[in-house]
Structures are given as C-alpha cells and as structure tokens.
Design a protein that fits this description.
By secondary structure, the chain is mostly helical. About 80% of the residues lie in helices and about 0% in strands. It holds the Pfam family DUF2238.
Length: about 240
C-alpha cells in the first residue's frame, strides 16, 4: 500500500514538473513560481522528519499520505494557474476544499493530541469548533496574502503571483474552506494523529505558535489593507477636488 502511495507522490511531482516546464515555455511567471513552490512543499514533511532525527534523535512518524496530499493539492493548484482558475468556475472551489481539508486534518490531529496532553476538558463539539474556526482563520490569512500580492503586482506593474478576484470570490473561498474542514470532521479523519503523538509537547507548542502567527499575521495584513484603502480613497478624493 505504501508503495502505491509513494508512486502517487512521484506521479504528482512529475505532473508538477511538466506544468513548470509548460509555464516556462509560455513565459507565465506566476505559474512558474506556483509550480516551483508546490514542488518544493512536497518535501517539507521529509525535511522536518530528517531535522527531527538529526537534532533530537526522533522520527515524526511520517507516512506517505501527507506528502501525497500536499502533492495532489499542489498539482491541482499549479495546473489551475495555466488557465483553469479563469476558465473553469469550480476549479478554485476544488483547490480550496482540498487545501482546507489538509489544514483541517492536521489541525484535527494536533488538537486531539493537545487536549489529551494538557488534560483540558474539551468535548467533541469544542474540538470540532476549534478545527473549523482555525481552518477559517487560515483561509482569511491566505485571502489577505492574495489581496496584498495583487496590490503589489499592480504597484510595480508585475503579474501577481496569486490572483484575487474580489469580495464575492473571497466569501466563496472561505465557504469552501469550511466545507473542507467539515468533511474531515464528519469522516473523523485521524490520519495524522500518530505523527502528532510522537512528541505531544512539541505538538502543543506548534499549535500555540501557529495560532499566534495566524492571529498576528492576519491583524497586521488587515491593518496594511485598511491603510492602503484609506490612502487610495484620499488620493481619489483629492483628484476629484482638483
């Protein structure tokens, strides 16, 4: 079974490599960057496992399901940058559901282990609510990154690495983020619990760091967006008065 999963990882990596090559030939810089990043992200779990073994002498219990999920999500996202995001209305919903489900599956494992380790009296409803809310916060964080990437591209007359299609699209993206999280919870997908159980203390610390990063990062980016919109409105009003 593991051999088939690893074969799936390699197949997805080959697909991303083909997309990268196609994007280079088309001189599609955003697609090139997204495919390159998607390719590298597949190796992050392997790198974490290697570093944990090198510095602490422990293995994180890495199984091929995590690299495969990352690879599949990266493949769909990379291919979308070649046109499907603009040409197929549901493609963005599919990629958001896949990526949000991955985030939720990891969060579900982390929260379960954190609750058991800290002996916090949390029932199923609280665990579910935590996973959904943090997944949604992750979606907000990503949407803010897309918005700032669009503004950065416009300011320097560069093609944006990530596309932002407006408020309605953002609402739909967040909706499908929640859909991905709910699917994981309904299926009670505890695929990554063994990884989280390797070092419960590290798992709890990672949860705190991630939550803090999401909250602080979202607040900072929201402030930047508000300031930019205020400056834009001031410039527009000034132009009209002239």
């Amino acid at each position: 079974m593991e051999e088939l999963l690893f074969l799936g990882v390699f197949a997805c990596l080959a697909g991303i490599a083909v997309i990268f090559h196609t994007a280079v030939r088309q001189r599609n810089a955003p697609a090139v960057i997204n495919a390159g990043v998607s390719f590298l992200l597949v190796f992050i779990p392997v790198l974490v496992d290697a570093l944990a073994n090198w510095f602490y002498g422990i293995r994180v219990g890495l199984t091929p399901e995590l690299p495969l999920w990352i690879a599949v999500t990266g493949l769909f996202h990379s291919y979308g940058m070649l046109g499907p995001y603009d040409e197929i209305s549901w493609w963005d919903h599919l990629t958001h559901t896949l990526s949000a489900a991955l985030v939720a599956a990891l969060l579900y494992a982390v929260v379960i282990v954190a609750v058991e380790y800290t002996l916090v009296p949390a029932g199923t409803s609280l665990i579910w609510a935590t996973v959904v809310l943090v997944t949604l916060l992750s979606g907000v964080f990503w949407e803010l990154i897309e918005l700032l990437a669009r503004d950065f591209g416009r300011k320097f007359d560069l093609p944006p690495v990530l596309d932002h299609y407006g408020r309605q699209d953002t609402i739909l993206d967040l909706f499908f983020d929640v859909v991905g999280a709910v699917l994981v919870l309904v299926a009670d997908l505890r695929l990554f619990v063994p990884m989280a159980e390797v070092s419960p203390q590290t798992t709890v610390a990672a949860l705190v760091v991630v939550l803090g990063g999401l909250v602080v990062g979202s607040l900072v980016m929201s402030l930047i967006v508000v300031v930019k919109q205020a400056d834009s409105k001031t410039q527009t009003d000034s132009g009209r008065s002239d």
